Amino acid sequence: MEARTAALGRARDHALAWLSSLDDRPVPPQVDADEVVRRLGELPDGPTPSADVVDLLAQACEPGLVAIPSGRFFGMVIGGSLPAALAADWLTSAWDQNVGLRALTPAGAAVEEVAGRWLLELLGLPAESAVGFVTGATMANFTCLAAARDTVLLRAGYDVRRGLSGGPAVRVLVGAERHPSVDLPLRFLGLGDPQVVAADERGRIRPEALAQVLAQGDGPTVVVLQAGNIHSGDFDPFAECVELAHEHGAWVHVDGAFGLWAAVSPRWSAETAGLSAADSWATDAHKTLNVPYDSGLAIVRDADALASSMAMHGDYLIEATGDPQERTPELSRRGRGFATWAALRSLGRSGVVDLVERLARHARAFADGAREIPGCEVLNDVAFTQVCLAFGDDEQTRAVAAALLEDGTTWMSGSRWHDRAIVRISVSNWSTTQDDVRRSLDALRQAADRVARVGS
């Protein structure tokens, strides 16, 4: 008990020191991975006191940490951690519950059921839907697409338990600008590469192109739509596309890793119209809700279809209807629902709406401020929380991105969109303030000025 208390006390001290440094520290890491490897040292011959291990880990890793929880990290859509959710995540590790069976860990199962119900209410999704707590958006897509695959094959008279080789081919139709976290699960599921449907200049799937592709074939079909394009932030036209897909007997899945959260606010009612008519939805509570990692959400309208695809059975298991393991690919896992419940309970309905709308306001402020920087071009209409910038040619744009990282005030990642190098801003963190936006825009302006001076 003494060792446990000492180790946890040291961890608390290091955690609070890290969090208190975020406002002032550079956002990029100060050393590379090779240096952290050197600092971690070799495996000792004998034991080390637990508190000393914690100290060594914190001291070796701290210089190699990225200030992702900072309000000035905009490099990727990965958010931060709300205080209540972070604290609940600490408890999750301390409680050490294996949330697979309802009878074995009733607290973990209950929390996931309550949090799942709240999520469905907030997102306006069918109340009968099943919610599975998985690792992230990729596994959320995998879980939903497994249910989709098995269901469309069963409708065609084929049971996937016989294997895929003897069954009819499953068509999976995706927009040209879908995220790769859709393609990877399709390979996991033995479905191979999807069939690509044309998208418009904002990255939205074209309904007329989808209608044409749907009409060109028959058999088991899955259509994947997108809530939140990774570059434009835009939304596929759900109402029209879902209706088209259902007319052809297709299952409709929505990849909404960060953009699904727009459904909580009336601000995006037009963009999300028809979204709730789909058959499954994937999102990540870490991205927009700001829950610690291990917080993917797989939502399937037909709970029986999800259970049929996911549930496992064993003579030693204390099985009950509604077990959490019926909704995820895993039997053994941590209690992911505790932190999600805490985030939702701390914010309440109005707080979730305010969080989502505040992130979008910051994104619009970035776009407005960037337009005032000489040589800066804003490439997208800010539909949600993404902003794409260019500075002249590709070489200049990449140079601005590099200069930003060298300065360290903020992190905005480079990317490529519509065959142009860009600087992409993803606003995802609850802790971002107007001052963070101002400081980051100042750093962006100075980086652009330095690059322009060098090039002149």
Describe what this molecule looks like in 3D.
The termini are far apart. Strands 1-7-6-5-4-2-3 form a seven-stranded mixed β-sheet, sandwiched between helices. Strands 8-9-11-10 form a four-stranded antiparallel β-sheet. The longest helix is centred in the last third of the chain and has 35 residues. With 456 residues, it is an alpha/beta fold. Strand 4, helix 9 and strand 5 form a beta-alpha-beta unit. It is 43% helix and 12% strand.
Q: Can you tell me the overall shape? A: globular
Please bin the fraction of helical residues. Answer: 40-55%
Task: Determine the N-to-C terminus distance.
Answer: 66 Å
Largest sheet: 7 strands, mixed
**Secondary-structure element string:** HHHHHEHEHEHEHEEEHHEEHEEH
User: Strand content of the residues, in percent?
Assistant: 5-15%
Strand adjacency order, main sheet: 1-7-6-5-4-2-3
Q: In angstroms, what is the radius of gyration?
A: 23 Å
**Average pLDDT reading:** 96
**Total number of β-strand segments?**
11
- Which parts are unreliable, with pLDDT below 50 for 5 consecutive residues or more? none
Please state the structural category: alpha/beta
- Helix segment tally: 13
